[in-house]
Amino acid sequence: MSVSALFILDLKGKVLISRNYRGDVDMSAIDKFMTLMMDREDEESLSPIIIHGGVNYMYIKHNNLYIVTISKKNANVALVFTILHKIVEVFIEYFKEMEEESIRDNFVIIYELLDELIDFGYPQTTDSKILQEYITQEGQKLEIAPKPPPAITNAVSWRSDNIKYRKNEVFLDVIESVNLLVNVNGNVLRSEIVGSIKMRVFLSGMPELRLGLNDKVLFENTGRGKSKSVELEDVKFHQCVRLSRFENDRTISFIPPDGEFELMSYRLNTHVKPLIWIESVIERHSHSRVEYMIKAKSQFKRRSTANNVDVIIPVPSDADSPKFKTTVGFAKYMPEKNAVVWHIKSFPGGKEFLMRAHFNLPSVQAEEAEGRPPISVKFEIPYFTTSGIQVRYLKIIEKSGYQALPWVRYITQNGDYQVRVQ
Which fold has domain 169-272+386-419? Predict the structure, then answer.
């Protein structure tokens, strides 16, 4: 990676924090940054990298701040942006929000953190839980320097070795979001599943965990190709997972961080049958009133139930005098969003419900010019996955030999789930 220096600037380009890591670039180079940014404002898309006078500027914007690194070397750009986002993540853990005021209020601890996060231009300790063990906001009151936790010098930098729990438990959530776009004719234009496996770990010592999934590649390699399996794409793992083991034999083996973290994410670019099907009939009467008939149908198994379903129907901006009739749930007009929200608390599988809405349109407005935004749907279905992914086992091995309880649950929810209307 090798960055020469890091700066935190306000929106006018004033330097709030600067840290010179290598001493090979003139720190006054940052003075040109805002001028270079302003010169590029006419461009349609702004690259987060500027090269000028032999200096590489790489930056991200967060709230009212720019976080900028400069380098003369051919830096690993992907790693630079990863550490920039990690810095934001750590600062939010410490200060709840990262903005100009929190930077000014906490500049002493920020310099401490920057010295631990990056050393001589290379990323070091980036785990906020480990950092919080020895960089505290109260400041160190002892005269002698605090001893860094073993995790800093350990091969397992994301976990301390002195963790103890009276009850050893692991909670594992498989969460899938469904992205769907349906056109006015009812054809699915785009569908994909974006999944993640999130864990909450309350285990003593240094446990070794092994997770088994119904992974298609694994099943084919072990002669179980006909068993029900899932082909995972774009798999990304937390740093604790041993990638060489996964590449060799698809084993997900790891020593977990303590507490909550995302173990892995994946994507399936697959044809998804719409879980909640929406049909709409919209009748406009010479710009004096408009009537909506919305039919919602659940197309998943009867034993499953969708919770807190919201069907969000856009209406003209000048609509008023709303009247609603629903076979289940309730409808509410949200004038600030120019939409009707039909809320259904519990939507069992294989059911069909209706909602009717009537609005007056007082002004003769060219409604067609507004365009007709799509209907969007929000939902959550517990104990259910669209992809069919399954946790086959979660083994927990620790040298003291304690017994631990793994808890697994599945949740499917909406992602970008939209139905275009006529």
Answer: Immunoglobulin-like (2.60.40)
